[in-house]
Design brief:
The complex is a heterodimer of chains A (about 250) and B (about 425). With about 250 residues, chain A is of the alpha/beta class. Chain A has a single domain, classed as 3-Layer(aba) Sandwich (Rossmann fold), CATH 3.40.50.300. Chain A contains ten helices and twelve strands. Chain B has nine helices and 19 strands. The chains are: A alpha/beta (about 250), B alpha/beta (about 425). Chain B: Belongs to the iron-sulfur cluster assembly SufBD family.
């Protein structure tokens, strides 16, 4: 599903290499986790895949199915089925959450040549999905992420994911700033979206999110490369011993 | 010396083309205004408050002709239960207007209100005259002297629905001056709505006397008419515990100058003035000039102005808060911001505070900036195309000004209209 080959990325403005050759294959129906110390390039990977400016790909490729992601604008990548749940969701005053969601859903449908969702149909679906995530009607009416708590912002990200029904979901440190209950709600939301046809890439510092969202494959990233790949036990190893052992083992 | 005698000043040249309406209760006020105009002379570029806005097309004897296009602003408040008054090219259209009877108010036309002892006699030109110091506003004096028509509204009670003055423009050359006077008695409440393009060139004055405990709401949509030129003036005086709230939406118009002069003369009064403006093109020029005088204790004033400028458009904001010596506990707030969608557009802001009281809270801020890249990426990452995302963020930027409209229905009408404009632009 998601296929990354030899991806090298530097900052556009300065001569600083962030990703130094990343290879990664995420199959449909699987959950991959990327763990790693601060500054290893995890978030950069998520931004480059979703098309944020400020980065320059110097080598390598990234495909979603047959589609060359790196050639596309961010909105085209989204329409192709890529979704990034932000570590820090952006507050947008004056734009209602519902307006935003409906604009996004219908823009993607339009881009794919599908029929747009009617207001009534949209309302029905969004209410049902919001209820599952314990997002109340008031939150839907408020401007995007304005005055939302950390947990509400993350639940709002998952709601967007549920509405947009992407093929490939990247979660960038979705657990940051969440207490245990909020994390469980978010994880439940993600687990409900796990299907045969959908891939997940979960970026996190900590094992604890992976207790709730059970990964099939765990990668350790350090200094712009994936240095070790294993099963769920790899996450437990990090939890118990930190990254130092793995880093020295590889070095 | 014969040559010198034929040399007219621009002010004399303009006056020579106009007829002073005569024979009514406003005669004295008109003559008085004429002498104010003659004394001050028409605005020129060297005048301090015309430094950023060229007055010539507003002051020359002949209005520049402006092509007529359909303006959807004419229908802006059609869904609202209101009393409608229609002016076409500055001429009252009785057939298109509603009956002028409404409980709690009397509505008359300036051109017809000729009764000897008229209530407006004490008000017509009075607030305009007060507003001439310390800064002269000659175009307002010109209006008081020569305005052919307008509405006079006396509000004696809480009025059940708004009065909506709808302007339509069918002439490419109409040069129109209208003068509206509104008096709210103590405890009265009234909402005035104005929308549509008035004329190729429009000079407007609105004088509002807000009595003790009275509340006046004003929502205005200028345009949408790319070629019109307008100089408008609001003069208001607020009594004790009264409220004045005015919001103006401007979308295009080749030259717009909106003056708002507010005098807080009763304690515990509140004056809010806000504007949202969308300007497109190198010939777009929009100027908001506000002067608020605090002359009473514990009054609040807010100025919230937002301008979106693209393709070389120019926006100007000149806002002053004057706090007199005894106006303690004044709470003054002023913000003016522009969203510049390209490098050719410009925003010129001149915030001024002049404070003589020692126990006041006054703040002001002015910013110019581009679209927030993080927010833009966030929207695009959800599949919202670049142009639509830009429009959403533009609405988001204007929201703070639009939110100054207290009535939810009116606020939604204005927001919907803004969204429509943006959508059309994107298409």
């Amino acid at each position: 599903m998601l296929s990354i080959k030899g991806l090298k990325v530097k900052l556009e403005e300065e001569d600083k290499q962030i990703l130094k050759g990343v290879d990664l294959e995420v199959e449909a129906g699987k959950v991959h986790a990327i763990m790693g110390p601060n500054g290893s390039g995890k978030s950069t990977l998520s931004y480059v895949l979703s098309g944020k400016g400020g980065y320059e790909v110097t080598e390598g490729s990234a495909h979603l199915g047959d589609i060359d992601l790196l050639d596309l604008e961010p909105e085209e990548r989204a329409a192709a089925g890529l979704f990034l749940a932000f570590q820090y969701p952006v507050e947008i005053p004056g734009v209602g959450n519902m307006t935003f969601l409906r604009t996004a859903v219908n823009a993607q449908r339009k881009a794919r040549g599908e029929e747009e969702m009617s207001a009534a149909e949209f309302l029905k679906v969004v209410r049902a999905r919001a209820k599952e995530l314990k997002i109340d009607a008031e939150m839907l009416k408020r401007p995007v992420n304005m005055g939302f708590s950390g947990g509400e912002k993350k639940r709002n990200e998952i709601l967007q994911m549920a509405m947009l029904e992407p093929k490939m979901c990247i979660l960038d440190e979705t657990d940051s700033g969440l207490d245990v209950d909020a994390m469980k709600l978010v994880a439940d939301g993600v687990n409900a979206l796990r299907t045969e046809g959908r891939g997940f890439l979960v970026i996190t510092h900590y094992q604890r999110l992976l207790d709730h969202i059970k990964p099939d494959v765990v990668h350790i990233m350090a200094d712009g490369r994936i240095i070790k790949t294993g099963g769920p036990e790899l996450a437990l190893e990090v939890e118990n011993n930190g990254y130092a052992d793995i880093l020295s083992e590889v070095a | 010396m014969a040559e010198a005698a034929t040399q007219q000043t621009p002010t004399e040249a303009l006056i020579a083309t106009l007829d002073l309406p005569q024979g009514g209760w406003s005669d004295a006020a008109r003559k008085d205004a004429l002498s104010r105009l003659q004394q001050a002379g028409l605005p020129e570029r060297r005048d301090e408050y015309w430094k950023y806005t060229r007055p010539d097309t507003l002051t020359q004897p002949q209005a520049v002709s402006a092509a007529v296009r359909a303006s959807e602003d004419v229908a802006l408040f059609d869904q609202i239960d209101r009393l409608k008054l229609v002016f076409v090219d500055g001429v009252f259209d009785a057939d298109a207007s509603d009956d002028l009877t409404l409980e709690g108010i009397t509505i008359e036309r300036l051109a017809q209100a000729n009764a000897d002892l008229h209530w407006a006699r004490d008000l017509y030109g009075t607030l305009e005259k007060n507003g001439q110091t310390p800064v002269a506003r000659p175009l307002a004096a010109l209006n008081t002297a020569f305005a052919a028509d307008g509405v006079l509204i006396h509000v004696t009670d809480k009025v059940s629905k708004p009065v909506n003055i709808v302007y339509r423009r069918t002439s490419e050359t109409a040069d129109v001056m209208l003068h509206n006077v509104i008096k709210l008695d103590a405890g009265a409440e009234f909402t005035l709505l104005e929308n549509g393009p008035v004329a190729a060139r429009f000079n407007g004055v609105l004088e509002v006397e807000v009595g003790d405990n009275a509340a006046f709401h004003h929502v205005r949509a200028q345009g949408r008419d790319h070629e019109q030129r307008a100089a408008t003036h609001i003069f208001t005086r607020l009594g004790t515990e009264s409220a004045f709230k005015s919001f103006t939406l401007t979308a295009n118009g080749v030259m717009t100058r909106n003056d708002c002069v507010i005098e807080l003369t009763g304690d515990d009064a509140a004056a809010h003035v806000a504007g949202a403006c969308v300007g497109d093109g190198g010939d777009f020029h929009h100027d908001d000039t506000v002067f608020i005088t605090h002359d009473a204790v514990n009054c609040e004033s807010r100025q919230v102005f937002k301008k979106v400028l693209r393709n070389g458009a120019t926006g100007v904001f000149q806002g002053k808060i004057l706090v007199k010596k005894d106006a303690q506990k004044t709470d003054g707030y002023q913000i003016s911001q522009s969203l510049l969608l390209d490098e050719d557009s410009q925003f010129l802001a001149k915030p001024e505070l002049e404070i003589y009281a020692d126990d006041v809270a006054c703040s002001h801020g002015s910013t110019s900036g581009a679209i927030d890249e993080d927010a833009l990426f966030y929207l695009r990452s959800r599949g919202v195309p670049h142009n639509v995302a830009t429009d959403l963020l533009t609405l988001s930027f204007l929201a703070e000004a639009v939110e100054e409209i207290e009535d939810e229905t009116l606020r939604e009408e204005i927001t919907a209209r803004l969204a429509e404009w943006l959508e059309r632009h994107a298409a």
